[in-house]
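Re: the request from the purification team.
They wanted to know what the chain is likely to look like in 3D before they choose a buffer screen. I agreed to run a prediction and write the result into the notebook, where they can find it.
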Amino acid sequence: MPLILISGYPCSGKTHRAQQLQTFFISKIATSPSPHTASLKVHHITDQSLGLDREVYREARTEKDARAAEYSAVKRVLGKDDIVIAD
Protein backbone atom coordinates (compact mmCIF):
# COMPACT_ATOMS: atom_id res chain seq x y z
CA MET A 1 0.00 0.00 0.00
CA PRO A 2 2.66 2.53 -0.94
CA LEU A 3 1.49 6.12 -1.21
CA ILE A 4 3.78 8.62 -2.93
CA LEU A 5 2.90 12.29 -2.49
CA ILE A 6 4.67 14.81 -4.70
CA SER A 7 4.46 18.50 -3.88
CA GLY A 8 6.18 21.60 -5.15
CA TYR A 9 5.82 24.86 -7.00
CA PRO A 10 3.66 25.12 -10.13
CA CYS A 11 5.48 24.03 -13.31
CA SER A 12 8.32 22.48 -11.31
CA GLY A 13 8.02 19.02 -12.89
CA LYS A 14 5.80 17.23 -10.37
CA THR A 15 3.57 15.58 -12.96
CA HIS A 16 6.52 14.67 -15.17
CA ARG A 17 8.28 12.97 -12.25
CA ALA A 18 5.05 11.19 -11.26
CA GLN A 19 4.69 9.87 -14.82
CA GLN A 20 8.28 8.65 -14.74
CA LEU A 21 7.61 6.83 -11.46
CA GLN A 22 4.43 5.31 -12.85
CA THR A 23 6.27 4.04 -15.94
CA PHE A 24 9.07 2.65 -13.76
CA PHE A 25 6.71 0.78 -11.44
CA ILE A 26 4.64 -0.61 -14.30
CA SER A 27 7.76 -1.95 -16.05
CA LYS A 28 9.08 -3.50 -12.81
CA ILE A 29 5.71 -5.14 -12.12
CA ALA A 30 5.50 -6.49 -15.67
CA THR A 31 8.94 -8.12 -15.49
CA SER A 32 8.66 -9.44 -11.94
CA PRO A 33 8.53 -13.23 -11.52
CA SER A 34 6.78 -12.90 -8.15
CA PRO A 35 3.01 -13.53 -8.29
CA HIS A 36 2.42 -11.02 -5.49
CA THR A 37 4.29 -8.28 -7.32
CA ALA A 38 2.48 -9.10 -10.57
CA SER A 39 -0.85 -8.40 -8.84
CA LEU A 40 0.10 -4.81 -7.94
CA LYS A 41 -1.66 -1.90 -9.66
CA VAL A 42 -0.29 1.61 -10.13
CA HIS A 43 -2.60 4.64 -9.89
CA HIS A 44 -1.65 8.22 -10.72
CA ILE A 45 -3.96 10.85 -9.20
CA THR A 46 -3.70 14.36 -10.65
CA ASP A 47 -5.85 17.47 -10.85
CA GLN A 48 -6.39 16.72 -14.54
CA SER A 49 -7.54 13.14 -13.85
CA LEU A 50 -10.10 14.54 -11.41
CA GLY A 51 -11.26 17.20 -13.86
CA LEU A 52 -10.04 20.09 -11.69
CA ASP A 53 -9.00 23.37 -13.25
CA ARG A 54 -5.92 25.23 -12.02
CA GLU A 55 -8.15 28.18 -11.21
CA VAL A 56 -9.59 26.37 -8.16
CA TYR A 57 -6.43 27.24 -6.21
CA ARG A 58 -7.05 30.99 -6.41
CA GLU A 59 -9.61 31.03 -3.60
CA ALA A 60 -9.58 29.23 -0.26
CA ARG A 61 -13.06 27.73 -0.55
CA THR A 62 -12.57 26.21 -3.99
CA GLU A 63 -9.09 25.00 -3.02
CA LYS A 64 -10.54 23.25 0.03
CA ASP A 65 -13.07 21.43 -2.17
CA ALA A 66 -10.34 20.47 -4.65
CA ARG A 67 -8.12 19.08 -1.89
CA ALA A 68 -11.07 17.10 -0.52
CA ALA A 69 -11.73 15.63 -3.97
CA GLU A 70 -8.08 14.58 -4.29
CA TYR A 71 -8.08 13.10 -0.78
CA SER A 72 -11.22 11.10 -1.57
CA ALA A 73 -9.76 9.83 -4.85
CA VAL A 74 -6.60 8.65 -3.09
CA LYS A 75 -8.60 6.91 -0.36
CA ARG A 76 -10.75 5.12 -2.97
CA VAL A 77 -7.82 3.48 -4.75
CA LEU A 78 -5.49 2.97 -1.79
CA GLY A 79 -5.35 -0.71 -0.95
CA LYS A 80 -2.97 -3.49 -0.10
CA ASP A 81 -2.20 -4.29 -3.75
CA ASP A 82 -2.07 -0.69 -5.01
CA ILE A 83 0.68 1.85 -5.52
CA VAL A 84 -0.76 5.37 -5.50
CA ILE A 85 1.13 8.40 -6.83
CA ALA A 86 -0.52 11.76 -6.09
CA ASP A 87 0.78 15.07 -7.36
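For the purification team: The helical segments are 14-31, 35-38, 60-77.
Please add any questions underneath this entry.
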